[in-house]
Amino acid sequence: MKELEYPFDGEWILSKKKSIKKQLLQENGPFLQKKIAVLGGSTTSNICVLLDLFLLNQGIQASFYESEYAQYYADAMFDNPELMEFHPDLIFIHTSNVNVKHYPSIQDSDDEVTAKLDLTYQEFEGMWEHLNATHHCPIIQNNMELPSYRLLGNYDCVDVRGRVSFLNRLNERFAEYARSHDFFHIHDIAYLSAVVGLDRFSDPFYWHMYKYAVGVPVMADFCYNLSHIIKAIYGKNKKAFVLDLDNTLWGGIVGDDGPENLEVGQETSMGQAYDAFQTYLKAHKDIGILLNVNSKNEAENALAGLSHQDCVLKPDDFMVIKANWEPKNLNTAAIAEELNLGVDSFVFVDDNPAEREIISSTIKGISVPEITTVDKYIREIDRHGYFEVLKLSKDDLSRNEMYKANLQRAQTMKSFADYGEYLKSLEMKGVIKPFEPLYEARIAQLTNKSNQFNLTTKRYSQSEIEEAASTRFTFYGKLSDKFGDNGVVTVAIGRPEGDALHMELWLMSCRVLKRDMELALLDAIVHRCKANGITRIIGYYYPTAKNAMVKSFYETLGFDKLSEDAEGNSTWEFRIPECYENQNKYIEVTED
Amino acid sequence: MTREEAYEKLNKVFQEVFDDEEITVNDATTANDIEDWDSLEHVNLIVAVEKCFGIKFNIGEVTSMKKVGDMMDLILAKTA
Asked: What region does A498 belong to: left with phi over 0, alpha with psi -120 to 50, or beta?
């Protein structure tokens, strides 16, 4: 719903919240169900109301637990039975600088200030540790907004006794913890309050009247920003840009004006603005976002424009370049297919409102930011939080190379008449092993991101992955070939019970579809079962809106269907034969 | 703006905030007359009224409102 995307009218949303919610529930399903505990250091009622709307807009239906007014610490530390019974999937600690109890006084020595900093920090850390040990779920913690007044004026950020200095140091400690704990995420209200204006953010009217630490008129901005982290945790980040060229990446029309007359580069103000925008886009490559072109142009003109010496973006920076006269929605669908991504993982950027309208009205789930003029493009895209990063994995950093290699594989495939010959030519090497700490973050990420090749769509936090590693049969698989390393691409978890292994999770990244990695994994599962005296493998398929491709997966592997209910949930059995012959023929696998 | 005209606008605000198209308010209406009107919803009502009429209430004004008539007096004074 456009009204819930940047730039929105927060007060309007608040006044219409009930009718908006009805509309979202009707239009946006099916929803992922999540239980969110909000532990507040100030009033939280509007936060739950607004966060609910932004999450519904992302396809997440939350139920909320709210602590009693300002009882965040007691709830966290003393295991409020109500909270325990709630079994949260996620905990949000809504504290702010009104909850800091040990501010320095002007008489304090440096050491005393440091002691107060430690004390303040340790109360928080103790809470995070306890919550993690008790609930094993992601925790989101506000950092601190700057104080609303400065006793020492500008010197408040210099002197350690100044509150500005104190809160800055505290925020750095929070960030330090987040760097080393994957379950823990910072909601950066220090940044957010600067964006909306600290005077509006910390409006004392709402604090004294209603004990709201965040001004009600900017509460929507707050919840929007918070919703970005939550949707990222549940795998709803965007993955790729689809970009127009003329008047989007440069000023002018390359076909009419000629590449030499485009506005881009350092010569003019307009050119500089396009340069800044291209630089912004190019930086996304480094965090694993895929860039693509979708432009109404002759192909050679598009390439001539991109080869302009002042263009920051070069033809090589893009995965797929579609420069033709096809309708843009068809081009977008074609790009999605080539990259093996859902169209809903794209952000479509085009200066032409008519093109934007066609895309947003024909492609469900795609994001189409309303951009206005080039000097504002960056902000108009950035504020959406499309690519909210929870942690930068090695995979993110090399994703562009992996997709490039995939495109090359597709090219190679065309040159083989026999698919087996093609697979052989890839010289694939696989590793299949039980979970190892090094890969647990990536494994958790995969369980939350994989929707299509996912039999049970069970989501795991990293701590749950760690737990599974010690109580279950676990498998992760890596696959590489002559074009490159795909990293961890498949994960399975089985619960041994008597003579059977119950497959609680089996997923695979779509970028290695049809490479026989699933057969290699079956082989590994069978070997582990045999080594442990297990004779049957029980598979489960739970249908979702996105996993129809694996509906008959177990059947293909030779499992027998035991049962199926009205919703299509099915159970399958594989009796391991005495002499099991490996199914995988093309991947050279190292097993543990 | 006459008191009647202002009430027309104000009714719309109440209807939106409490999501009930049947609601009409008058000078004598209080929080007891509207089911969902608790202290948490009160803040949202104030914000919506401020936005609708392009005005701001201060802390003393908000605390002194006992019934809708008091709110209306302030709206008219501030928009005059």
From this structure: left
